[in-house]
Amino acid sequence: MLHYLLVSLFQFSFNVLKVLEIKYTYQNKLKPLLLNSLLINGASLGSVFISIDSLLDGDYLVIPFYVGFAILGKWFAMTHFENVRYKIGKLLKIY
To answer: What is the pTM of this model?
Structure first.
């Protein structure tokens, strides 16, 4: 059960951090981007290591946790972090 919790946490974090990476790149914020890259790599390494280890042990139930929390993390980041570019575009009636 701990494996599923860790995979879920790592996948959720990874996808939130990927959205933040795009945001920091767009805003040209170097220090937060570098720290974010470090966290992305740690989350990715942890998630992949635990998932592959579980799969090699024959535990295929880890797959829905891996995929499901990746989607949930992406959804959370896209709906809960402010998208300034989109708001400006809506204000100017571009979008």
So the answer is: 0.82
37: closest CA among 78, 54, 29, 53? 29
The vertex-51 CA angle with 42 and 18, nearest 5°, equals: 40
Domain boundaries in the chain? 2-91
Question: Are 10 and 50 in contact, with CB atoms under 8 Å apart?
Answer: yes
Query: What sign results for the dihedral spanned by CA atoms 68, 69, 74, 80?
Result: positive
Spatial distance between the Cα atoms of 52 and 58, rounded to a whole number of angstroms:
10
Nearest to 1 by CA among 62, 69, 72, 67: 62
Residues 39-77: tens digit of each pLDDT: 999 999 999 999 999 999 999 999 999 999 999 999 999
